[in-house]
Specification:
2 copies of one chain form a homodimer. Chain A has about 375 residues and is an alpha/beta fold. The first copy, chain A, contains 13 helices and 11 strands. The longest helix of chain A has 16 residues, at about 20-35. Strand 3 of chain A pairs antiparallel with strand 3 of chain B.
């Protein structure tokens, strides 16, 4: 197996964007190619992740992106795994480079939905649930995560204010990220006073609908060394699944796919949770970040809220979580999110994260799931 | 690299189906699992291919399929590359098994669109073109392939009756395929008298919109031997790309991605066009089959029509093309088609093709592309 590396990274701003889905994907990809210091023709294949290309009337995005980059003859494909599409695509690219099928590939995640309005978006996103059991019963994602939050409140010593702290922390980080969608300082009172979306979750417990694109160049270490740019190593990769419908799970306060993916990734990297310096995790709702940090092994089950209360997950804490601002503040263009997490880790480990830098970090982790965690991928990265 | 094999295969009937997209995918997958003689828990991951899950309100299909098969913890993802989705997904599964990431995986292609009606389907399919240049200008696929057909008529000694012969041949094959969508004998006169869709292409030059699902089990040869079922080897795999918009190509009568993918697949398999006993090729329109057979090296450029006239591509001919009936008669559920081609090759090479058996065949090829060939994959299979 080849040692796989991230050689370059680029992102559009996340938020409400005017350009087409093709254009924003090309913009992020050109930035990643420039950052890597390579020419487009050195790219062997394109791995695109996207969920609702139909919203911008463009599916089969791969050839459009490759053609716009001037390399139409290169193979490409799109990967979808709901909100976990980006990390699923990253994993496929990783496997192909590790196996030697390509020396270098483009991984580009993208989504363009805000122009369609909240009603359309909420409806279409519900198609990512197990629609037979959930979506058609009216159980869209705010409701499903509210069920998890309610179960957590019942099972452990936690309050709604604890969830609010996650939002406050991630908005603080996002203020330092020029690419973030919601660059706004908020307080616990702001969260508590915001409109109830699905009790106990309020508006500020929820990530926004965002447009955006993020790209990275993934390559063998041999290729990275020959091209002389700054690179980081991908040392662990894992994927797992959970029952598609929440009702099929034994417990509501843990996500099995996270545990499976994390175990594989830790094993491949030869490290454990204590070796991780910071993590970008899937905080589509504040409750998700709490559950994630427990399932990833950073804290015992039920102790995730105490960790937030004690600032252990803040940027200067024991294990900073979502220094980028996370889905909550940076935004959540669903097909791009998993790749955007890798962009943040690349920026952090190569000294490009500016004011939000996690000091002394050499090992980062990304965790990105689809729906309520029906699909999940975890990756571990180390600086050279 | 592990030698990769196809151990089992299953398909629903192609046509207008009543069951949901999830249900038809599970049906085909259960058939493939039974055919392989394995238990679902022996499957390491699921590779789903699908384009318009939104049409049946279910994207993020992987976890739904894995959950219904009783293996929710296994990772899965969906791959889209327009009408070439099935072969792109097959290739990813192939790469992962070849590299040793999994011993056995499920590859399932699926599509459910007929319930939405012709207008919706034509519109959505146009999102698979380069929408900026083609779809929004009204250039949907019948029009784009008509441009290719017109160019072919201008450039070579060919007639509209030559194209019609492709349809007649494929319908003859499809009559022997109980899973085929259009089981109807037609004549050249029928084709010539059918309604003009986009001149020079008439209704019977076009494949139908179909629902359907096809699945195969892909595994290492070690796994196949241990499980004792009938299997065939995947000896060659290639992928390529072409300019997304037809206008970006130098020639209209050749598809660059086919040539690139074929060259890679032949090289990996260590064979040439003359070693192929039969092929399932992408005949979304009759002109496509002519161009395909030339680009795959079976005939010189411009000679594909003579080959059809002389019955070289008929079931008893020199190189039988589309013994299954092809997209034209078997049908074209776009996310399933590329996997369905592999099902046909498996059935042919393991003696399960009944009356449509290509006698003495030991080597088969599949060729499946997206849009007007912007993406393409070619695979080569050999019996054990």
């Amino acid at each position: 197996m080849e040692q796989v590396c991230v050689l370059g990274a680029g992102s559009t701003k996340y938020g409400k964007l005017e350009d087409s889905i093709s254009d924003i994907t090309v913009q992020a990809s050109v930035d990643a190619i420039d950052s890597a210091g390579i020419e487009p023709r050195e790219i062997g294949a394109g791995y695109i992740s996207n969920v609702f290309g139909v919203a911008d009337k463009q599916v089969h995005l791969g050839p459009v992106i490759m053609s716009n980059l001037g390399i139409p003859e290169r193979p490409s494909l799109s990967i979808e795994s709901a909100c976990g599409s980006g990390s699923a695509s990253f994993r496929e690219a990783f496997a192909n480079v590790a196996a030697g099928f390509y020396d270098a590939v483009l991984v580009a995640g993208t989504e363009k939905v805000t122009h369609t309005g909240t009603e359309w978006t909420t409806t279409y996103f519900s198609y990512c649930s197990d629609f037979f059991y959930e979506g058609q019963a009216g159980a869209s994602f705010p409701g499903l995560f509210a069920s998890m939050a309610r179960a957590y409140l019942n099972e452990f010593k936690a309050t709604e204010e604890d969830f609010a702290r996650v939002a406050v922390k991630n908005h603080e980080n996002g203020l330092l990220n020029p690419k973030a969608h919601l660059q706004k300082k908020i307080t616990i009172d702001d969260v508590m006073a915001s409109a109830v979306v699905a009790s106990p979750l309020k508006l500020y417990d929820c990530c926004p609908f965002s447009d955006g694109a993020s790209s990275v160049i993934l390559c063998s270490e041999k290729f990275a060394k020959e091209h002389g740019g700054e690179y980081i190593r991908v040392t662990g990769s894992g994927r797992g699944g959970s029952s598609a419908a929440l009702q099929g799970r034994e417990q509501m306060t843990t996500i099995p796919s996270t545990r499976i993916a994390a175990e594989q990734a830790y094993k491949m990297a030869g490290v454990g949770p204590k070796d991780i310096d910071f993590a970008e995790v899937h905080d589509c709702f504040t409750i998700a970040e709490i559950v994630d940090t427990e399932d990833l092994g950073f804290f015992e089950k039920g102790k995730g809220v105490a960790a937030v209360r004690e600032d252990a997950t803040s940027r200067g804490g024991e294990i900073p979580i979502n220094p980028s601002g996370g889905l909550k503040s940076k935004g959540h263009p669903i097909g791009a999110t998993g790749v955007g997490q890798v962009v943040e880790v690349y920026d952090q480990l190569t000294g490009k994260a500016g004011q939000r830098t996690v000091k002394g970090a050499t090992t980062g982790l990304t965790h990105n799931f689809g729906a309520t965690g029906a699909s999940c991928a975890v990756h571990i990265f180390q600086s050279v």
